[in-house]
Write a structure and sequence with these properties.
Helix content is 68%, strand content 1%. The chain is mainly α and 404 residues long. It has a two-stranded antiparallel ribbon with strand order 1-2. Helix 6 (80-91) packs across helix 12 (226-252). The two termini are 12 Å apart. 39% of the residues are buried. Residues 1-20 and 397-404 have low confidence and may be disordered.
Length: 404
């Protein structure tokens, strides 16, 4: 039973929690409190700019003072198991189902297997860098926080803009690809599910309501619970891995080793040229580093999660590319739908549906992990007041803590 004093406390907390945003929530600095302060700040711009160029943050500042801007700590609920599946979900998307055929046909031939290995090694080196920083500075800011410590606020500010732009553009691109693969699964063309706005300019008039709905659902799932998102992610990733295993096993039953000759038709240059493009298929692991603040034991869990997931992804990519090259001569591999056409060539046309499901599962987990990573980047950027600090507030559990 709730007493009158507890009820009044609850009412006050609700009002405080759900009140509207004031000017100070968006512009808390003294420079914006009055026009005279603003003009004085403008006169100090050269000195402030030099200060931004030369001043660097400290590890302790990021771990304590900056985190305190959120008023509440993030709940530590993730283990190495969660991070491993987040890493797999963040990386394995539609790239493997498209780029493999393109690079095998145009640049590397059967040596595309080596191209994937080279890209995997390069990605692993990046993962090792992220791992070192994430263990030393386990905060939600990821690379933004690391740059503040190593290169200062100015470089971190430039990186913040690039990070936000990267997540917005890549999320939109993956969501549109989701529609394309969904259309394939339904035996339709992608434009059948899009709205053509004839009054808009060409290439900007294909409105994609399915992509909007998918992103909206993903964001809701990401907001509800990071642990729940983790469970959904590794369930989807397990299904995706099972489909990849099926593709490899079913494909190898139609393997012909003669298709591997010549192995390097475009020479060493083609191998490295293809690896530069295929690196795109490994992008996404940086989002895992933003979850360091919610990891129970960062010193142990982050290295296992990041390195383990990248090793699994690299092995999966190499096996899939080997399977494709064994099924068809490299010059016959379709550049747009390599696995679908390869299975159709050997009489397994129905397998295209499994390929489409695998791609959809992969893109769904990529969108989910990207949404989680983007939210944490925005939180830490807002903590430093490079964005409105209102965006850094963590309200989870506030009412329950106060009322008991």
């Amino acid at each position: 039973m709730v007493t009158q004093s507890e009820g009044s406390t609850t009412t006050r907390m609700r009002r405080r929690r759900f009140r509207g945003c004031s000017k100070n929530d968006f512009l808390p600095e003294e420079s914006f409190q009055s026009w005279s302060n603003y003009m004085s700040a403008l006169k100090e711009t050269p000195a402030r700019f030099m200060n931004r160029l030369t001043t660097r943050s400290l590890d302790d500042t990021e771990l304590n003072q900056v985190k305190a801007e959120s008023n509440h700590d993030m709940k530590k609920s993730l283990t190495w198991w969660d991070l491993t599946w987040f890493g797999i979900g963040a990386v394995i998307g539609a790239g493997i189902f498209v780029l493999t055929g393109q690079e095998a046909n145009q640049d590397a031939g059967p040596a595309v297997i080596l191209s994937f290995a080279v890209s995997g090694v390069s990605a692993m080196l990046s993962v090792l860098c992220y791992t070192e920083f994430a263990v030393e500075i386990p905060v939600a800011g990821g690379s933004f926080a690391y740059l503040r410590v190593e290169l200062g606020d100015f470089m971190a500010f430039i990186a913040a803009g690039n990070i936000i732009l990267e997540y917005v553009i890549s999320g939109a691109a993956v969501a549109r690809s989701w529609t394309s693969y969904f259309a394939t699964l339904c035996n339709h063309k992608p434009d059948d599910f899009r709205i053509i706005a004839h009054n808009l300019s060409a290439n900007y008039n294909h409105l994609d309501p399915i992509a909007v709905v998918v992103i909206g659902i993903i964001c809701v799932v990401a907001v509800i619970s990071v642990k729940g998102s983790s469970r959904l992610n590794y369930f989807s990733s397990i299904v995706h891995i099972c489909i990849i295993i099926f593709i490899v096993i079913a494909g190898l039953t139609h393997a012909d080793t003669n298709n591997l000759a010549p192995f390097t038709p475009f020479g060493p240059r083609g191998i490295f040229q293809a690896s530069a493009v295929l690196f795109f298929a490994y992008v996404g692991f940086d989002a895992v580093s933003t979850m360091a603040e919610e990891t129970k034991n960062p010193g142990r869990d982050i290295p296992i999660g990041l390195i383990g997931s990248m090793a699994i992804v690299t092995i999966a990519y190499c096996l899939m590319s080997l399977t494709l090259c064994l099924m068809q001569p490299y010059h016959q591999i379709d550049r747009d739908a390599p696995f679908t056409m390869a299975f159709e060539k050997v009489g397994m046309r129905w397998a295209k549906y499994l390929v489409a499901i695998g791609a959809l599962k992969g893109m769904t987990t990529v969108l989910l992990v990207s949404a989680i990573g983007q939210a944490r980047y925005l939180t830490h950027i807002a903590r430093t007041h490079m964005m409105p600090p209102w965006l850094a507030q963590l309200l989870t559990g506030e009412l329950h803590k106060q009322v008991g």
